[in-house]
Design brief:
The chain starts with a helix and ends in a 7-residue tail after the last helix. It contains 4 helices and 4 strands. The chain is α+β, with helices and mostly antiparallel strands.
């Protein structure tokens, strides 16, 4: 996403550079011709020079292309930003040992949430006999069933202040 924003900024810089070049070329021509002609305005000078007309038309065409591409990139960025709100952006992980007869923190509670605090809490309870996996749905940072202390901590780590 950041690379698209950087590309958009680069295109904006190119647009400004093209505008600066057009202005400098026009200014240079005005100053160069000012010694030979009376300053009646810029338009009559530009209309009399087919090379300058061609150059300005070419630059304006390129400027229009840069503007069109900038608008297209802006539209693509807006679509990507809207879609990225639903991607996993916040993660919380708590490892623990719920049973005395097992060694190590093999069990865990993991919260996976999007930008709007929607997602799941995945819990795995590991014992010597079996491993059980539970999944709880989280909507706007809330769960419709009671959460264990470890699941609530995983939500807190994922940025949900008061899980419920």
């Amino acid at each position: 996403m950041q690379s698209l924003l950087d590309a958009l900024q680069a295109a904006s810089g190119a647009l400004a550079l093209v505008a600066l070049v057009v202005a400098l070329v026009a200014l240079a021509l005005v100053l160069a011709r000012g010694k030979r002609r009376s300053p009646e305005g810029l338009t009559p000078w530009l209309a009399d020079d087919p090379i300058l007309d061609s150059l300005l038309a070419s630059l304006m065409q390129r400027l229009d292309g840069v503007a069109d591409e900038s608008m297209a990139q802006g539209a693509r960025i807006r679509v990507m930003e809207a879609a990225s709100r639903h991607a996993v952006q916040r993660v919380g992980l708590v490892r623990y040992n719920p049973f005395e007869d097992t060694g190590g923190n093999q069990s865990f509670a993991m919260a996976l949430l999007d930008a709007d605090a929607n997602g799941v809490v995945l819990t795995s309870l590991h014992s010597r006999q079996a491993t059980r996996v539970y999944l709880r749905t989280i909507i706007a940072g809330r769960c419709d069933t009671a959460l264990s202390a470890e699941e609530a901590e995983a939500l807190r780590q994922a940025g949900v202040s008061a899980p419920g």
